[in-house]
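Good morning C.,

I know you're traveling, so I'll keep this short. The sequence:
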Amino acid sequence: MIRYIPFLKAKRGEFTAMGALAPKVKQAICPFFDFPRKKPDYKAEAYASTALSITKSLKKHWGTASEFYFDDLDTGQKLKVQGEHQYAYVLKALRGMQVIPVVALDRTDHNDAVARLKRDREIASATVAFRAEQGDFEDFEAKQDTIDYDLTAVFKEFNAIDLILDCRLCSGMNVSETAQQIAAFAQKFSDAYNKVRRVIVTGSCIPPSIRDVLGTDDATTLPRRELEIIAKARDLSDVDLIVGDYGTVSPFYSDADLDPRLMQKVMVPRLIYPFKGFFYITRGSSMQSGGQDQYVGLTEELCGQDFFRPGYSTGEDYFLEKSKGIGNRAMNGTVVKPSVVAHVTYMVLGAKL
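The tokens, ready to paste straight into the viewer:
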């Protein structure tokens, strides 16, 4: 039974984390991967190369037997890649895997590509996911005609629909109001479209720049408003709502194309760790000013907290090793995998979902 949907960037650290999960955790999730945002945006050749790299990594670390969602919401939507709409290209690259395609409002070419590929038997999944952001799910009646116009041709090609209510960055949202919107939309959509399989609610409280919540050489705790919204929506809804979140990165995180000579000035080590409805966040200073070994101190701080869970997953094992200076030096890239493993494991086994 699927209990939790982690929304992850389709990147190496996240993929290797999926392969490192314990079997009982992996069996309880259906990950949602977003094509990674990039500045400046992709050109066709780079998009194709990234899509093929994503496919290779997914096959290696997630496998071909388990379902996952895949979307490219965070990229420009007007690329033609080798004569195909960009989303058609990536879905064809993922052929042979259990990929659930994702559609949304106001993405006409994207949605048409999904309907066409399904008619042409290029998509094996019997399920399509409809991803609605807050502007879409505020009022079902106000959006029903648009849903019908944009998505009827897609929905008729599939046996089931997974509804995704995506709050994205929800730190400034009114919990009660948003929960009421979610509960009402989930019920009305399920009544109107009688083949809803899952209803997923997701969001994040982590801003695009962590500087918005703490300075350098500092630590803080951040309330997870997305969990407050989901809990309240469950109280108001008769529809079963599955918990999702964006892990330990912001929905709006993007890779910047920086001059390598500037990296030491702008790269700042950080750790984000979930516990009891909060994130613990600790942050160092730039590598240039604070040095290359800052993760020793950051992991030591984390492992000294009373909410730290030693032995809980390979993520916690990694943090303990680095707090003692064991093995290779931890870097921004190498902490992604253990952070994702620790987060997903906690959400499945420890969080009250």
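Safe travels,
E.
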